[in-house]
Amino acid sequence: MRIIRTILAICSIVAFGAFIISEVIQLGSRDTTKPQITAETDTIKVTSEYTREELMEGIRAWDEKEGDLTAQVVFSSPSRFIEKGVCNVTYAVFDSSDQSASLTRKIKFADYHSPQFTLSQPLVFVEGEGNSQEVMSRLGAQDVLDGSRKDWIVQKESDVNYQFPGTYSITFEVENSYGDSVSESLPVHVVSADSQQMSIALSTGIVYITVGQEIDPKTYITGVTGAGGENIDMDKVSISSGVNPNVPGCYEVHYQVKDDQGSQGETWLTVIVEDGGED
To answer: Which of 4, 228, 274, 276 is deepest in the core (most CB within 10 A)?
Structure first.
């Protein structure tokens, strides 16, 4: 038994010695240097259709043992806005020992503007025929970063009575995923059936322009239909514009047409003038 105990003790000592030697060897070969990331600038400008190459502009990553790691850099999706049109993006890189480095810088979207409402056709209804569902079917919202935001539109206020002719308004609000929200009070017209015997079709129900930008209301007419369904010369349409392109706000263009038999038609184009002074 004494011999067996002696042999076991020797084996234990040898195993422990081998373990110590192994740990010393691993410690000597272990990578203790962490990678680094640098950026040439703290802020870069990109477009809303940015590419990986654009976001990587000026970024460099390296490790003392492994060399250039720039191609292995990954980055987060842009954060919510820290100011309008400006986000944070975080870059990270790992070496083969799973040691990491990170860096955060600002990304400014040079072509950014707030979400805008869209209208497939004007908010004009014959008395007794309009309703809120029909309004929502015509209304949409687009964002340069998120695309369609129709499902995020919220109705805030409305004074519309679809049973009586008049000019009313509905206030809508929409927000994009970056935290930028806009609110707009859009005009709604309820008209008598007599004023809709003829039809004026427009390519859109709403147009956005920036301060100082002129529009030609006639270019939005796509067709005019007479009381009998016949095509009417678009030059027969009279146009009255209340748009002041020098002052931000919500305006309208009024289109009217009449024939020799007394039939008539009318519609309105909503024009939103936005402040274009952002850098």
So the answer is: 274
Give the chain's radius of gyration (CA, Å): 33
Task: Please name the amino acid found at residue 214.
Answer: E
Judgement on whether residues 94 and 212 belong to the same structural domain of the protein: no
Question: What is the CATH number for 159?
Answer: 2.60.40.10
Q: What are phi and psi of 3, to 5 degrees?
A: -65, -40
The two tokens of residue 131 are 């309703």
Which pair of structure tokens corresponds to residue 149? 């935001």
Retrieve residue 39's tokens. Answer: 């950026």
Contacts of 51 (CB under 8 A, 6+ apart): none
pLDDT tens-place string over residues 115-136:
999 999 999 999 999 999 999 9
Parent domain of 248: 116-274
The answer to the question of residue 25 being in a domain is: no
Beta strands in 3-115 (DSSP E): 36-39, 43-46, 59-63, 67-68, 74-75, 86-94, 100-109
Backbone angles phi, psi at 234, to 5 degrees: -65, -20
Q: Which pLDDT belongs to residue 69?
A: 96
Over residues 133-156, the pLDDT tens digits come to 999 999 999 999 999 999 999 999
Decide the pairing of beta strands 116-119 and 100-109. Answer: unpaired
Residue 65 lies in a domain: yes
**138 and 207 within one domain:** yes
Q: How many residues appear in the chain?
A: 279
Whether residues 155 and 270 share a domain: the answer is: yes
Is residue 11 in some structural domain? no
